[in-house]
TrEMBL record, chain A:
GO terms for molecular function: histidine phosphotransfer kinase activity; phosphorelay sensor kinase activity. It comes from Halomonas saccharevitans. This is histidine kinase. It catalyses: ATP + protein L-histidine = ADP + protein N-phospho-L-histidine. Residues 17-89 form a coiled coil. Residues 96-309 form the Histidine kinase domain. GO terms for cellular component: plasma membrane.
TrEMBL record, chain B:
Residues 61-262 form the FIST domain. Transmembrane segments: none annotated. Signal peptide: none annotated. Residues 263-393 form the FIST C-domain domain. This is Uncharacterized conserved protein, contains FIST_N domain. It comes from Halomonas saccharevitans. It comes from the Bacteria. It holds the Pfam family FIST_C. NCBIfam families: NosP.
Length: 457, 414
């Protein structure tokens, strides 16, 4: 059909015919224009209207993509929030469970410690020793599980401060020397005067883990604990003469539940979580880890810690007597405030074993009675107070503040199951000591010895 | 083992950090709303007008001035006066078909916005050869703007910037220039308006680099930490009637025939008026639009020519289908848009708007100008009546198109 050339109007057409023919002609022209337009669509050209149409299509595409993107983003956000909430509730649950488990464990440890100081038949002493070690294992396992969950939830904030590396390593060396000796290994410790900046407790876990592994996997030979100065920090090294780690497995050992070789002895109850924790802690602290190993000759684990500078306050006098000497605590008047009567009793037994004079209180009312009945010259030297007291009572810090009003010189050690750095740093600001639950008798003893020796916490 | 108890170094460190001065002594806290200075001058004398604007806008941190002025001003003298008044501060703007001042619609005046360099990094470029503006040049221009902005950028450039385009409204080049520019801008949203000349349709001008230019465009890239949204709206709804362009002169943007009949005649028949009665007010009330997808884009009629053809403000083509449109309540639509913007951005610190002069004409016919002024003043609109608007590379007509800028930086700086 030739749309451009309208039919000629016959001479004898009626007006109606004429009208229809004219309309027909117009419609042909409209059809022709539309066809021209349709056929020019998609032709790349510089026609202005085409540019406009192109811009509209583009804008529409952009709008659609943006919408799709926003939709996806919103879904991702929702999914992330859900996952975070689930993770948080898991962490809270674990924290709650661990807190509840720690309390009786704490009491059991204190009782066992007290029992060890009694004169018992040799057979009983051995049994008590087994109970004590089992409790230690349970506690370690529980702590490890809680730590992994806390590290994963990102709730653990490092509490970094400068300190002499010897403060950490001297104690660890002492502790592990016995453990190594028990397995017929020699522990060779080279001390250092360096000052480092780190979270002492977290760093201790890293080095402790290195040492535990070294002792666990080394059949004979020796363990080395030492430091090496590097330009960008102090490297704390733990070496052993164990079987070494094949190249292929050096990454895998930092994953959960990975253990090398078959362990045969019953004492070994680890879950294989140790290095997974080390890896996470090192990440949080931003301390690079290093592993060198020659299969058959031994392994070397190292963590690099930045150097620190101590604030220029006069050096604290060292404790006057070693913590393990017999009667340094004899006659020390210690008050214990804890809402758990079991803990109070356990503490009392332990402290009494060290020769301390102990008074306990499980609530404020108890405490007030104790204060009223105390004879002159019987004022407490040290207050051991649980941070979380019973419902209705203020927290341990308030109790401490109250007692300090009456006795300004009173030394305070706060005990808490809450591993957040915030309480620790709060107590530090107040000049109080702080111990984490479950209270380890040796730590408690060292705190008390320190108080007796240096005076201030 | 004793824990270390150093005197809390964290606290001391924080105190020192808090006292650090970044050199902007009078800057308020970050959560305080950012002031955006705007001004208007009714004075006809260029020097007096420029002086008045400078008095209101000048402060040590003034980084850029954007203005819209009546085409009545002697433009060369106005350029000179502005350069003198804002010594050293870059100034860009255009002539209008009416101004939107802080108090609402104005006429014969000059309005201006002062952008604080602490909150806005601005760079500006002139395109003085619209015909030769190809993709290569567009890319160079955009790269230049981004480079210029980068050093002073207050937030990531790609996500926190928008482009404002001001075009000579009688150049008949908007479509290609905009599509090209948009391609070069990529993800950066753009909007703008075509300069006007108080409906005389003779000469429109844009201002940059110290003087006014015809057949030219100005591109202003604005980077800010403040939240913003580029938007467009119109209040026109489709009717049933369709008109097919059967003959067009694309170079001159003229439609000679609609439905194979002389264009003016056919349009007059559609609106039920004699051809002689067709004027801008009629065009404003009875617009024609093309439909693309689900959206209608008004193709505004500029005038009736002696040969019975219609001139348009935008590109036309043989075979395009025009849908007759009817206006819905204009201010209700605008208010809903402002409400939505406020919901998303908080109370706007400023809305820069390109408002088609045909909308103002409709408001004048309906005697709703005062109500419109109140609504715009409440939403802090500054802008001008345009001969066409620009949105994401599209040249559109009879719309209210602009950018709303929130008064507080988005939380988290995202």
């Amino acid at each position: 059909m030739d749309l451009d050339r309208p039919r000629a109007v016959p001479e004898d057409a009626s007006p109606r015919e004429r009208e229809l023919l004219e309309e027909n002609a117009r419609l042909r022209r409209i059809a022709a224009a539309l066809m021209e337009r349709v056929e020019s669509v998609g032709v790349a050209g510089a026609a202005p209207y085409a540019a406009f149409e192109h811009a509209v299509l583009l804008a529409e595409q952009v709008r659609e993509r943006t919408e799709a993107l926003q939709q996806t983003l919103a879904e991702l956000h929702a999914a992330k929030a859900e996952a975070e909430a689930a993770n948080l509730s898991k962490t809270r649950f674990l924290a709650a469970v661990s807190h509840d488990l720690m309390q009786p464990l704490n009491a059991a440890r204190l009782f066992t410690s007290a029992l060890e100081d009694h004169d018992l038949p040799a057979a009983s002493t051995r049994l008590v020793g087994h109970v004590g070690r089992s409790l230690t294992d349970v506690e370690a396992l529980l702590g490890t599980l809680v730590d992994i969950s806390r590290l994963d939830a990102g709730v653990l904030e490092p509490d970094t401060a400068p300190f002499p590396v010897a403060r950490l390593l001297d104690v660890l060396a002492e502790e592990f020397r016995h453990m190594a000796a028990a397995r017929g290994l020699a522990l060779h410790y080279v001390g250092s005067e360096a000052i480092i900046a780190s979270d002492l407790a977290l760093l201790a876990r890293v080095v402790r883990n290195f040492l535990t592994n070294a002792i666990r996997y080394t059949e004979h030979g020796r363990i080395l604990l030492g430091c090496r100065r590097r330009p960008d920090g102090l490297e704390i090294l733990v070496g052993d003469t164990g079987p070494g780690i094949p190249e292929a497995q050096r990454e895998a050992i930092f994953l959960e539940f990975q253990r090398l070789g078959e362990r045969r002895d019953a004492e070994d109850r680890g879950l294989g979580l140790g290095l997974a924790i080390v890896d996470r802690i090192a990440g949080i602290l931003d301390h690079p880890l290093r592993l060198a190993s020659v299969p058959g000759r031994g392994s070397l684990f190292a963590v690099r810690v930045p150097f620190g500078r101590l604030p220029s306050s006069p050096a604290r006098a060292p404790a006057s007597a070693p913590a393990w000497e017999g009667d340094v605590l004899a006659g020390m008047r210690v008050w214990v405030v804890d809402d758990d009567p079991e803990i109070c009793e356990g503490m009392a037994a332990l402290l009494a074993g060290w020769g301390c004079g102990v008074r306990t209180a499980t609530c404020l009312a108890d405490l007030d009675t104790a204060l009223e009945t105390q004879a002159p010259g019987e004022a407490a030297e040290v207050l051991l107070v649980d941070y979380h007291l019973g419902e209705g009572d203020p927290d341990g810090l308030s109790v401490a503040a109250r007692l300090r009003e009456r006795q300004p010189g009173l030394a305070v050690v706060v005990i808490t199951a809450n591993h957040d750095a915030s309480i620790k740093s709060l107590t530090r600001q107040l000049g109080y000591g702080c111990l984490l639950k479950p209270v380890k008798p040796l730590r408690l003893r060292m705190q008390l010895v320190g108080l007796r020796g240096g005076g201030s916490v | 083992m004793r824990e270390p108890f150093p005197a809390s170094p964290g606290l001391a460190g924080m105190a020192v950090e808090g006292a650090v001065d970044d050199g902007t002594a009078d800057e308020g806290p970050a959560d305080e709303s950012v002031p955006l200075y705007t001004a208007v001058s009714q004075r006809g004398d260029p020097r007096a007008a420029a002086r008045e604007l400078a008095d209101a806008l000048c402060h040590p941190e003034l980084g850029f001035v954007l203005f819209f002025c009546s085409a009545e001003y002697p433009l060369a003298a106005l350029s000179e006066a502005l350069n003198a008044a804002f010594a050293g501060v870059p100034v860009a703007g255009c002539t209008t078909a009416g101004e939107i001042a802080p108090e609402g619609y104005g006429r014969g005046c000059i309005v201006a916005i002062g952008l604080d360099r602490r909150h806005f990094a601005v760079s500006c470029a002139l395109v003085d050869d619209l015909g030769g503006f190809d993709l290569m040049r567009a890319q160079r221009l955009v790269d230049g703007l981004l480079d210029d902005c980068r050093d002073r950028a207050l937030a990531p450039l790609a996500e926190h910037s928008f482009a404002l385009t001001l075009l000579d409204g009688l150049s008949s080049c908007e479509e290609q220039v905009l599509a090209t520019l948009d391609a070069a801008l990529g993800r950066i949203p753009s909007f703008g308006g075509s300069a006007g000349d108080d409906n005389r349709l003779a000469h429109t001008h844009v201002h940059a680099e110290g003087r006014f230019h015809g057949q030219a465009a100005v591109v202003v890239l604005i980077n800010t930490r403040l939240p913003f949204e580029v938007f467009t709206t119109h209040h026109l709804r489709p009717r049933g009637e369709k008109l097919v362009v059967t003959r067009a002169d694309r170079e001159r943007r003229r439609v000679l025939e609609l439905n194979a009949l002389p264009a003016a005649e056919e349009y007059a028949r559609l609106v039920g008026l004699p051809v002689a009665a067709l004027d801008a007010a009629v065009f404003a009330r009875h617009p024609l639009a093309v439909r693309l997808g689900e959206a209608y884009f008004v193709r505004a009629i500029q005038r009736v020519n002696d040969d019975g053809s219609l001139s348009f403000y935008c590109a036309v083509e043989n075979g395009i289908v025009l849908t007759a449109m009817r206006p819905a309540p204009l201010l209700e639509d605008l208010e809903a848009v402002f409400d939505g913007l406020t919901e998303r951005l908080g109370d706007p610190a400023l809305i820069i708007a390109c408002d088609c002069f045909l909308r103002r004409l409709e408001l004048e016919t309906l005697e709703r100008v005062d109500a419109a002024s109140r609504l715009m003043a409440r939403s802090r609109v500054i802008g001008f009546n345009s001969y066409g608007e620009q949105h994401h590379g599209m040249h559109i007509n009879q719309t209210f198109t602009g950018v709303a800028i929130g008064s507080r930086p988005a939380a988290g700086g995202s």
